[in-house]
Every structure is written in structure tokens, then in C-alpha cells.
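Incident log, structure service

09:12 report received: a user says their structure output differs between two submissions of the same chain.
09:20 pulled the input from the user's history:
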Amino acid sequence: MAGIYIHIPFCKTRCIYCDFYSTTRSEIKDRYLSALCKELQSRKSYLGNEPVETIYFGGGTPSQLSRQDFEKIFSTIKKEFNLEQCSEITLEANPDDLSPEYIKELSSLPFNRISIGIQTFNEQTLRLLKRRHTAEQAIRAVKECRLAGFQNISIDLMYGLPGETAESWEADLNQAISLNVEHISAYHLIYEEGTPLYKMLLKHKVEEADEESSVDFFALMIDRLIQAGFQHYEISNFCMPDKYSRHNSSYWTGKKYLGCGPSAHSFDGSTRQWNISSLDQYIDGIEKGILAVEIEKLSITTRYNDFVITSLRTMWGLPLNRLKEEFGIELKQYCLDNAKAYLDTGKLELRNNTLFLSKGGIFISDGIMSDLLWVED
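09:34 re-ran on a clean worker, output below:
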């Protein structure tokens, strides 16, 4: 089973914190869509004829596309890939794009999961971040998606925002919980170099959340969402039972995936490759029959390190039997030797021959995973 990621790079405006590859040049959308469909056609063998289980439209802002745009992409995918076992097709969307008319169009397409980028319900912070929607629009978008028949709705939140307090973060969590969505992703704000927000930080126009506050925000989020019935199935992701993101989980469980569009990444089990982060160069390359791409052949130790980082961050944990089968007894023993100190202190747990982060271990997960990695001499 495998996944397909479709990158839609178009945004109406850029958020001041975002460093994902995107553009506001919507005038070349049609040319881009033609190139995207050609890439899908030319790379149909990449997944080794494995059935496609999930499709994910990310961005950028995929909800900038029309129904006709999506129909063109879906027509190509259906021709080139085996979708008989495809169970999840996700669209990332901005709340202000989700008018009742647009949602109705989406409901006529194969999408069965909507991921809405809300970030916060605080009006002042939304304006600071240059988000195009209001809190009211975000709440209404979720409700309209439900009325249109979508039974798998996810929302994105951010914490550690400028001026945020425990009270304002809890208010965001309470509002999110009240929407009765199936899935919540919540990420700490990162001040990425080169973004307008980073420049504001350098000029002391905003302040970064301190480490103690960040830990408190994270702890509050875990407690409130678990109390509300969510499963904490990945460090930044929570779901109602069996409503985890199957597409994103494929990244964490080592499944193959094909990424199409500028800056999109792919993985076939032994190599990773990523398309160039330039819309013009991407389109030019496709039109000339030469995909602008970089490829990395993964060594056994690189694959081991990836396995540790991706599996340990989930509720499914790091299965030692699979580690031994794929990487050998030496790396299994290396992992256990380095895990011992954390097992002794209760930061890691060993159950059914699988390593798991404990509740306390989640707060220092980066350090734990770092200590389990193989470092080349």
C-alpha cells in the first residue's frame, strides 16, 4: 500500500510565518496543472504498482483550485494508478475559501477528508499572522463541511504564538474541542529564517515563547485533548478513535509515497527524492521531459535513523522485531543499549517487544531519539 502527495503551490497571500514552497502567481495555474498531470503520468511506475491507499492535496493552498482543476488531476490519477483500495483522500483548505457553494462542489469530488488551517481563534493574532480568515469564518467552515456530509474533518492549530498565554491557548483548545472534529494537529510556532515573522523577531517587534511556557502549552494541550476523548497518536497529532491521518501515518510507518509538484518529496523504500523548489524550473523541466529532481540513496544506517525518528514518535512505537529484520541484530542491540538509561528512568517503556515514549518521555522526545541514532565515525 502506498500514498500520493500532490503539492498545490498557489496562495492568495502569504502568511508571515510560512516557509513552505508557495507562490501568489495564480496566472500560471493552468500551465502548472498540465505539468503536474504529466509528472503523474511519467512517474506511475515509481510506487512499483502498489495499490494507492491515500491521496493528499497539500500546499500552498489547495482550496485555491476549482472543481474543474481537481477533476483534471483526479482523471489523471485514476488512469495511471490502482485506486481500488484507496480509503482516504484529503484536501487542505483555508477557512475563507470554504463557502457553502465551494464545499458543495468539493462534496461532489472524491475527497472524504478535509484538513482546515485555522491556527488560532484569537482575532488579534490572526491579523498579526496575516491570516485571511476570522475566527467566525473558521467556525462556520467546520460546521458547513459537516452539513455537506464530510465525516472526517481535521483542523490545524498553532501554539507558542506572539503574546499567547496559558489562558488564550486553553481558549483555543476549548473552541476546537467544541467543534467536534475527528482530528486536531497542533504545532509550535517556529520562527523560520527569511520569513517576515523572523524579521519581526530580529527587530524585537514580537517575542518568542520561552522554553518553560512552550512546555506548559504542550502539557496543557495533551491533558485537554485526551480528556476530551482524543488519542495522542503522534507527537503533534490527536484523533478520535481510528480517525488518525492514514496518509501522514504512512510517512511514520515507512510506506512508499510519491510526491508530485515543486518541492514535493518521494520515498520508494531505498531512496528519497525531492523536486526542485521553483515553479518555473519545475514546469520548464516537465515540458522538456526532464524532471528537475535530486535523489539520495539511503544507506542502512540512514534508514535505521529514519526508522527510529519516525516510529518512536507515534503511539505504535518502535517494533524491535522489525528493527532486527530490516537492520540486523547489531543495530537492534545498539538501539537497546542506548535506550537503557531512558528505560531505567521511565522515559521509555518496553511492551510486547516494542519501545514507546512514556508520557514523561514525550517532553524530551528529541533528545531521546537523538541518543538512539547511529552516528557515523
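09:41 both user submissions now match this output. Likely a transient worker issue. Closing.
09:42 reviewer note: The chain has two domains: 2-251, 301-372. The first strand starts at residue 2 and ends at 8.
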